[in-house]
């Protein structure tokens, strides 16, 4: 097992995403005061180890530390709690509560679409989580089924969705990673303004909630295509079609969320209320008043008057400029990608964006937005003045060093390379309902079509053995909800995860010393052939020569050892005798016919 910081041990990978790998891990000892949750020795947690390329980028490391307080204080029953942030050497990790359940993407693939009532109630809880985070100035920006973990749901329990990956989009959105004018997100879930590089607000999460709701009731997102470019175009230009399975009030909610103009979308709080009204009014036990309220849900869905802004999220859109570059393979349902933005660089983004713009300071444009408000104050430097380190050190580098010092206390212990969990990949296991996945685009150099090719793969299946309740058996739900859920068959759920293409693993723990445990037996590698030179046709030539030799020897033996020679001689006499015989016959014939 591999230690992360001095407090945690990674046990097994749970899944891999675009920004890192999530591990089941165990707490070695209680975390320090800097953690939001101290935890107990032996406690199981989930740890997201961010990709090395993120961890190597000083800008991202600083952003990681800057976001520390935002992430740690974000608590809500429908948000996966971040317990601690670990900086160890150049390893960055988020310690989270371990959620015992599949993600919504895997659940959906295993169980099929939800009933409208169930989908409305589930999305209402997700909207609750969004409302709480938006109130705190935090916009998720990567809402999708894979980022919703589902706890509960067994033995009649009600499903409990929990939103995860908060702040990850913000981390990955660093100029260090995206370098040029790009955005981080999932094409199927990207809001039009993000696709165009226009400024983003919390309305992007509402758009994501609309897509999610659509996917929950149909099993697929409304805008699909073979390339990211195609999907982006559809988000920008196509109106979603009402699915046959969507009751009118529910469609009203979806349609409002999917408005192209962000300022026409409702707030998360309004959406949650509207969805509960719809769920109560479309069930079979709905009263006349409830049904009427559901039909009038449009009146509830007023546009959000004050959406929370996303800092540095583009501007000055020019869709024609960059859209054609957003081509490439595309996984419609899954992966978070770093995509080229479809807009021109805005005042706070782009290749020349000044990262310090997002640093809290007394004034300036960065301070005007909500997310900046949520950031912790800049600590004073050694000289007591913020941002004025003698060697021009970035004000956040103190924190970075302090965090590293804190975590570098980790004892360096021998780790057999074959046992290093960071070298292992999530296990691929057969899955009953694995959906075929398309290859998403891969990240390309600057100004090129880029996306990260990712592949979902089945992974450890902690739920594979346990019957997860089907949507129609999901426990004490509101009466209409429970009744509506009697049309679908139960299936085994499974967790699914994504794996980026051949992502290199951190290899920091391989000091040579005796192995504490015997390494698992491995197949002996096949020894290479001694004849390493391959001559085309040599085998055939050798075969032919061998056959000729055999024939020659055989013929010689037959000639010498059999009476063939006598037979040949006899054959000559016989031939001559035959000729004499023929001559005699001819003479006889001429004698017979001659005088007469
Ligand atoms: N707190 C957690 N508890 C249990 N499992 C988790 C937790 N967080 C993530 N997982 C599992 O790990 C998988 C991978 O998580 P990750 O967030 O890296 O994936 P992702 O959201 O698909 O990736 P990305 O958004 O970076 O493309 C998830 O699909 C989920 O099954």
From TrEMBL:
Its EC number is 2.7.11.1. Pfam families: Pkinase. Residues 305-535 are annotated as: Disordered. It is an enzyme of class 2 (transferase). The keyword ATP-binding applies. Gene3D superfamilies: Phosphorylase Kinase, domain 1, Transferase(Phosphotransferase) domain 1. PROSITE patterns: PROTEIN_KINASE_DOM, PROTEIN_KINASE_ST. SUPFAM superfamilies: Protein kinase-like (PK-like). Residues 509-519 have a biased composition (Pro residues). Keywords: ATP-binding, Kinase, Nucleotide-binding, Serine/threonine-protein kinase, Transferase. Residues 8-276 form the Protein kinase domain. The keyword ATP-binding applies. Residues 343-353, 444-495 have a biased composition (Low complexity). CDD domains: STKc_PknB_like. GO terms for molecular function: ATP binding; protein serine/threonine kinase activity. This is Serine/threonine-protein kinase. It comes from Streptomyces zagrosensis.
